[in-house]
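call fold(seq) -> tokens
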Amino acid sequence: MREDTTSYYLSAIQHDTLLQAQQLNTETVIARTGFAGDIRQVGYQSSVTLFIFCGLALFAIIKYNFGKNLKEAFQSLLNYRLTLRLFEERRESDRQAALLLNVLFSLVVGIFVSLIFPFFGANPLWGSQALSITFFSAAAWLLYLLKARIWRIMGVIFMAQSFSGIYINNMFLNNHVIGFMIFPIVAIIPYIPESAAHFAVYGVITFFALSYLLKLFRVFQIINDQNVSFFYFILYLCTLEILPLLLFAKGCKILIERVVI
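ret:
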């Protein structure tokens, strides 16, 4: 009788030990999503990798087929005269490169916004990172198309078509450079240790802020060069920069509050 009882307890202990080991292994597999087996607390769905591969394909096509156009876009950030020349020439290769770079920029924005949701304790929109990336990418694309349309209308109303045309061209050139430069950083965020991912996220945000300030400085340069009224610059800041930022911040706050864990 004593041997049967001892055997029963030993069997129960072995069973519990096996369950604990299986549970530990399962948790480790779920958590190990970084390079070199680093433990991460923030996990991402596998669909993110598919979007990153699409971005890599675009990145490679742009790099090897439109290298000259890309180089000129980078140089135009610091060279105002080059910006004017690119606006006046508007070659066919520039249009092709611009289309691909616009797609890459929208995709990068969608991926980045979706990736930072877990950092603020929120779930992806509709519980799917694929839908979240698609939504924010489409929103970025439509936002800048709408912004360009408003700029054209304002240029007609205030008889400043040249100014609005140059600025629209510069706005998209700025987006092209941003998307191409930050894509490698955004692409590695899901696969690096969480501590490094935080630095990457804040680095990308800082880069966006600096590029925004550079864009405002370029607006001032265009206004000064085109002899446009300073009132137009104030109107621009209020209607096309400050107001959209406030609406975007409010929208993000509402979304995060609705999907907070």
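Residues 194-226 form the longest helix (33 residues).
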